[in-house]
Amino acid sequence: MSPVRSQTPDCHCCSGIDAATPRRLDNPPGLDAIAYRIGRHGDFLESMRARLSSADYPALAALTTREASDVTLALSDALASSLEVLGFYTERIANEHYLRTATERLSVLEMARLIGYELAPGVAASTHLAFTLQGVPGVPVEPIEIPVGTRVQSVPGQDEQAQTFETVTAVPARPDWNAIPVQTVTPWRPQSGDTALWLDGVATQLQPGDAILIVGADRMDQPGSEHWDVRVLASVEPDNANGRTRVRWDHPLGSAFPSMSPASVGVQVHAFRQRTALFGHNAPDPNLMGNDDSNVAALIDTDVDPWQWKHFAIDPDAIDLDTDNPKITAGSWIALVSNQAGLGSAALPGYTELYRASKVMHRSRNAFGISAKVTRITPDTTENLTASRYPLRRTLVLAHSERLATLDTPLAHPVHGDALTLGRRVEGLRPGQPLALHGRRQRIALAPRAMGLSLALDEGGSTALDAGDELFLLAPAARLFGTTPIALAAETFAASLGLPHVNLRLTLLDRDGRRGTLIAKGSDIRLAASTEDDPNVTEIAYIDTAHDPIIHDRDHSHLKLQAPLQHVYARATLRLNANVAPATHGETVEALLGGGDGSMPNQRFTLNQSPLTFVSASTPSGRASTLEVRVNDVLWSEVPTLYRAAPDARRYETSQDDAGHTSVRFGDGQEGARLPSGESNVRVRYRKGLGAAGNLDAGKLTTLLSRPLGVSEATNPAPATGGEDAEPLDRARDNAPLTVLTLERAVSIEDYADFARTFAGIDKAHALWIPAGPARGVFLTIAGGDGAVVPEASDTFVHLSDALARYGDPLVPLRLINYRDARFRCRLAVKVQEAFEPDTVLDAVATALRVHFGFARRTFGQTVSVDEVAAVAQAARGVEAVHVTRLHRFDQAPAVVPRLVASLPVASLTGLPQAAELLTLADDSLELEVLP
Prior knowledge:
The protein contains ten helices and 55 strands. With about 950 residues, it is mostly beta strands. Strand 10 and strand 11 form a beta hairpin.
């Protein structure tokens, strides 16, 4: 009942005739804070004044004043103030007694300990370090070992501190493992159907229309061999950057008639520098020489009609060329081309035969009414050297052969997938070994006539592409059969370029750093060379541990990887470093804790350095301590609690205070052994340093603090991941009860999600039963701290998978997958109250929206509605009204969508479901405007 106040302004004797305290308390479930104060200062003061006017106290009837200066009223005011303070702290203490409402970390810590849960102390980030060794070219260097504890420090940026990482495994290292190239060329061996080859150098003096000879060693030894080809060049393409030239012809190598196959042994390439004719090709027509009495009648065969010069035919033993070329020497090649319609190719019509000059003479000849200097060649064979095959007037002679140096065929297709062929034979590699890869992404370019193409952006919308635009290939290309994509191997993708009937789907990165998808024909796309300005991308890959993952041949090593590569590399830029060691955040500390005292139970010591490093492990908590305690040089073991430990057990337990300092406690002789007496006989070895500060980008760890012999450089090719700070209160409130539900076991589908959520390095999880053959499996979606992706090769991912197999059902198939990060855009019109600054109010609204719709507050599959957005904005101080003018996902057209849906996995008999979505507000996609 509300107190009744006096209506007389100058008399307050009846003010507060009823007590206002104790207030009635109502605390429904689920509150963030409980109400426990039975009153405030005014309530207590009014209640005491009501007692002064109560008929139950007749002795106070004479006290009619209600002036605050009266002693009695002043004492009442002082008492009300004391009760106000007492009520405030009583409420605070009451709140600290409940897990949901406690605000002090120590309160949550102590309550969690009641159910056997310790607040997570954090975990160290992990990565791999790639080392560069010094070597002397041409001098063999023995392999060295990079020892455990090799320290590398980061180069801090602004407002950052240097972080130290140490290797945790000893690994062998060699100088020739520093930068191993992948195979960039394949030995050139002519094959039927070939239409191109590569020559060394760019000064070949070749031009389109020139003829070349491809001949094998068997033709040199056996004149009757048909392993040779003569082709006319269609194009000559110098590659100045690499000092080589590509020559191409239209008519493929090999021939069905006559039956010829390309050379295969001792192949040589020659250029024919001269096109000439046989002597006599320009002889005058004897039918124009007059009658039988002329002085040339004896030279003409008049028995044929029309007349012809006597012996007007090619001499199989002495082929006379129409020109005198001193560069035609013994051993050089000539080719005779009959120029007969219907045979050969368009560029070289007729029948072609190859001859090698066994003898060469340079002389003058007078015959057929003409005289000239000729080059007489004695061929190594007389095959097909007949007048009918090679008439003097029609035959083309390709002569003056010059040998050209050939190169192995460059491999143009990019590198991706789970198989690598190294550019040389590399000894000493072993299964399971990590490799650091670095190189540039493969560029693709739109063909000059490609029109009407656009890149569908992942963030929504599209951007038009012009002919000649170049983009980066982010994932292996897929060929579309209707709407079904089929992933292509790198070689198949390269072969499909230029084909108009092939539809391709490409995942690309444009010049502005936006990711998207392009649907185009093979004829619209070509591979482009990388440039010096292209950034390098790096990753860690592992050699497979399956049967024969490493195969050597004479010139190369072939590797099978555990998983496909993350990037698509330009082949010429890719390098591998095999001098790689796993490393974790923290640095080693060795210290003496003190001396044991056998007369003291539960002796306790505190570590001098903090925080103690915990590393990711396949334990129920996902972490393991790096602390080692030795007493009299004997290693003692850590246990969660000394309760019920054997009296002589060499055990100890640890605890951390709210500041992160670690204490070590030993037994009392009844539960755990006491420390033996001795001076400075308790020695510890541990590492210090952990937390999210260790989550460094790739290439940040570059400063060698310890330098093993021969090591000159170090870096981290992949980001350091998995680092997590000490568990905050909000997560502790959620996670502490989960350990009671799972009891370090995963049985139900909820257990799998709860187990993963409490695992170090995992922030959110969603589990689903899915069909797995005749039984069922678990499909688990996970998200790292602050929404970070958990790489499949990271310690966190591997250890979580191992822990679930160990503490769950080992016969249940488990599929771990990272969540899908979905974002939405929002635009609001805000009406600001007149008394407030618009900029300040808009900042408050933006902060409220980003917090409410940030990763920490959202769950998998949680929707976003217009009403929710408006309510959050309206709650900001100084807001009078709010109107949502735009709300849509990145993959939707701009509009006001009443409810944005985030999908959850759905079990299917035909395939794996998609990962769960988490829908959050994009950082740069909030637009606010002020309503007038």
